[in-house]
Amino acid sequence: MPWRVRLARAQQPLQCRFNRSSRSIDITPLCLRLASRQQRTITSNEKPLPESETPGPGPNQDQLPHVSEEAEAFGKITGEGGPDTQQGTPVEEVLKRDKDSKENAPQVIKEQMKSSSKPSTRSYSTTSRQRQEAMISFEDSDVETTGHKFGIPQLPIPSNANIKHRYDPLIHQVTNLLMVDGKLSKAQRNMAMILNYLRTAPPPMVNPNRPLLPGAPPAFHLPLNPILYLTLAIDSIAPLLRIRSQKGAAGGGVALQIPVPLGLRQRRRQAVMWILDAAEKRRTVGSGRGGFATKVAQELISVVEGKSSLWERRGGVHKLAISARSNLSTKRRR
Fold this sequence. Notes:
Strand content: 5-15%
Structural class: mainly alpha
Number of helices: 12
Helix content: 25-40%
Radius of gyration: 44 Å
């Protein structure tokens, strides 16, 4: 029987050994046989490894200090003096080291360097450590923190504290009237463009024949508060009444015109609808998605200046309501 056995269809030959007692061939790879011999067994007699007396990071695991801190420590050792890490370096000291920068420095700094013999210092530190120490911690504050991370809000809670009612009521109402097909984001963008136009526009010239509401601020103050600007323009042309046609009130199927007073939201809604109708009839100037918002803002400015045709429309409604007040019935109930 041959001592060497060649295995067919094998990529690499294996080293085999012949066992005379069992008359068999061991084809275990040599690497596995050597690994089994070198395996280390742990017995109960062995002692555990000694523990470190100073637990913590190893000698090469400490974080390296900053370059300025290393220079300061080196200067203390050599006695030459290093940079002051607790305070920023003044400009005069930097210029003294560089002659070219000193010659090209501004005249103000040159005069300060000549007048002051001692180098100027800053009253604050530019390092992040002192900034963190200067920060007021929440624990040091006088706010009561018993059971709460932040202070309890003061009662009563203001009306604009709710996220759904955080805007001015008039802004919310005008935004809803600007909305078309449920596109609220587009209406909010137009509302923001209107307020921005009122804020950046020049102050209006108020017509004394068509005064605004009593108690209104001066005209040159209006661009500083665009929400007040918008409120003043809408409330100034808002009608106080509306005309309701009632059929059969005079008998024989004849309709009578009866004036009906309006509430605050009703008055503002009617005024906004008039402004939107007048803005649609305006000529479009320029292009872009902010064209309609610009026309609405221009109509609001013309209302404040008394140039809009909505003043005649408001006056016509009031005249018709005054002439139709005789149609109101004042019958007493028994």
